[in-house]
């Protein structure tokens, strides 16, 4: 399976690593570290050196209970960094739910649109189609991170997430989006058990025939399972969750800790696990 990212192409016959670059003062794991341009560039260079296949940048926290920022503030945070990052020679994903931000980021040259609201706003699909950029469709039960945890109620979380992603993918492709990537939205309007069930049954999402992105990196449910309170210290639990996800068909892992994942996947692949997962 290939993912065409404008002038870049990713071969998804092996798992790919999407490095997370939060340009926010309040993200749950590393808020405030990289909101200055030079710090952001240095972090991006480090992730590429460690093996990141693409970089995902965002200027608005979407953690549970997060408050929104204006489109102008989000653009101020992300656009100068995006322009600088395009010089790195790897695909850049813009993580936004605002059409105003997406429009300028894609016009600058962003390669992938990552929308946590799942392209509910048809303007997002229209923009991805206009710029011939693929889009990540993520599930959360409502399009508002501030209230999403109040809606973590499902009869069958996997079936309901699958239905949403399938419907949104069909609409996006009909609107002219060249490719879609499906993201179950780990931690977005989900309980710890919902998160685990989605990872256990990720193969049911992969069966839809689109690339699957898994983003469990440092999330609260890992801390619940391991007793690790500090998000930055949840590396080992994260790697375990992601390797299991790969065994169930994940193609892209959205990660904070690139080196740890690259090394784990190198051993994983050497043991022949990759043939089992994607064979």
From TrEMBL:
Transmembrane segments: none annotated. Pfam families: Pterin_bind. Residues 15-266 form the Pterin-binding domain. InterPro entries: DHP_synth-like (IPR045031), DHP_synth_dom (IPR006390), Dihydropteroate_synth-like_sf (IPR011005), Pterin-binding_dom (IPR000489). GO terms for biological process: folic acid biosynthetic process; tetrahydrofolate biosynthetic process. Coiled coil: none annotated. It is an enzyme of class 2 (transferase). Catalyzes the condensation of para-aminobenzoate (pABA) with 6-hydroxymethyl-7,8-dihydropterin diphosphate (DHPt-PP) to form 7,8-dihydropteroate (H2Pte), the immediate precursor of folate derivatives. Belongs to the DHPS family. This is Dihydropteroate synthase. The lineage of its organism: Bacteria, Thermotogati, Deinococcota, Deinococci, Thermales.
């Amino acid at each position: 399976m290939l993912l065409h990212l404008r002038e870049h192409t990713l071969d998804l016959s092996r798992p790919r690593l999407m490095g997370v670059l939060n340009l926010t003062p309040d993200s749950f794991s590393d808020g405030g570290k990289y909101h200055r341009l030079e710090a952001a560039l240095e972090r991006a260079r480090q992730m590429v050196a460690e093996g990141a296949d693409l970089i995902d940048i965002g200027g608005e926290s979407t953690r549970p209970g997060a408050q929104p920022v204006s489109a102008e503030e989000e653009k101020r945070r992300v656009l100068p960094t995006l322009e600088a990052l395009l010089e790195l020679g790897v695909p850049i994903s813009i993580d936004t739910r605002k059409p105003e931000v997406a429009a300028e980021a894609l016009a600058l040259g962003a390669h992938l649109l990552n929308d946590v609201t799942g392209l509910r706003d048809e303007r997002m699909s229209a923009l991805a189609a206009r710029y011939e950029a693929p889009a990540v469709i993520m599930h959360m039960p409502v399009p508002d991170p501030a209230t999403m945890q109040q809606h973590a109620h499902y009869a069958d979380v996997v079936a309901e997430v699958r239905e949403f992603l399938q419907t949104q993918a069909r609409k996006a492709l009909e609107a002219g989006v060249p490719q879609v990537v499906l993201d179950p939205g780990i931690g977005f309007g989900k309980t710890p058990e919902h998160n685990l069930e989605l990872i256990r049954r990720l193969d049911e999402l992969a069966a839809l025939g689109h690339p699957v992105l898994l983003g469990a990196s440092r999330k609260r449910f890992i801390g619940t399972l391991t007793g690790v309170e500090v998000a930055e210290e949840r590396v080992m639990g994260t790697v375990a969750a992601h390797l299991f996800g790969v065994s169930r068909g994940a193609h892209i892992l959205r990660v904070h800790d690139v080196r740890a994942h690259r090394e784990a996947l190198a051993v994983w692949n050497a043991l022949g696990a990759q043939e089992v997962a994607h064979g």
